[in-house]
Design brief:
OMP/PagP_B-barrel; Porin; Beta-barrel_OMP; signal; elongated; mainly beta; eight-stranded antiparallel barrel; Outer membrane beta-barrel protein
């Protein structure tokens, strides 16, 4: 089974403090192999981006290689990009002949997270790989033996790594599913 999903995502925690707007720019690609009627394993790679326009602000900054503090005034833009890569296990509550196939799953893996701050002509970027996990619920709605729709929700948590704070988001996914025999 191959899924291609469009994602809408809301940041939480420190990620929300940095770039609080809900994102409508996200997607993921998943592959699942059934190990019987009720259990599947697979993997996914995704991308979500968050953005916040703070307007004209002043802030204190340190430049690399210097301990001096500089006050900079300018338009401040904040960005967060995440690229989760996870192994996924899913339990399916119904068999393949059902009108709806609800599932519960857990993804475990990593997420590359980049936090970027632009002030005027100056830019600061911190990025790290984080350990991440994502419990999920959803359902597929089969149209025929080879095609279905997917609707799901998941909470993703990536641990703090270096200067990159813990990443948390809640994501709603809608997509298409291609099923093999």
């Amino acid at each position: 089974m191959l899924n291609l999903n469009y994602q809408m995502s809301a940041p939480f925690g420190k990620m929300h403090d940095f770039a609080s707007k809900m994102s409508f720019r996200g997607m993921d690609l998943e592959y699942h192999q059934f190990l019987g009627e009720r259990f599947s394993v697979g993997g996914m790679i995704g991308w979500n981006t968050y953005y916040k326009d703070k307007g004209k602000m002043s802030g204190n900054f340190k430049f690399k290689g210097s301990s001096d503090i500089h006050t900079i005034t300018g338009y401040q833009y904040r960005y967060v990009n995440t690229v989760p890569i996870m192994a996924i296990g899913r339990y399916w509550f119904t068999d393949q002949n059902s009108t709806f196939r609800p599932y519960f799953g857990l993804g475990v893996g990593t997420s590359w997270t980049e936090m970027k701050l632009d002030v005027g002509q100056f830019s600061s970027t911190n990025s790290k790989w984080q350990f991440a996990f994502a419990p999920e619920i959803g359902t597929i709605i089969p149209v025929n033996d080879q095609f279905a729709f997917n609707i799901g929700a998941k909470y993703t948590y990536g641990t703090k790594a270096g200067k990159v704070e813990a990443m948390q988001n809640f994501t709603i996914s809608v997509g298409i599913v291609f099923m093999g025999n």
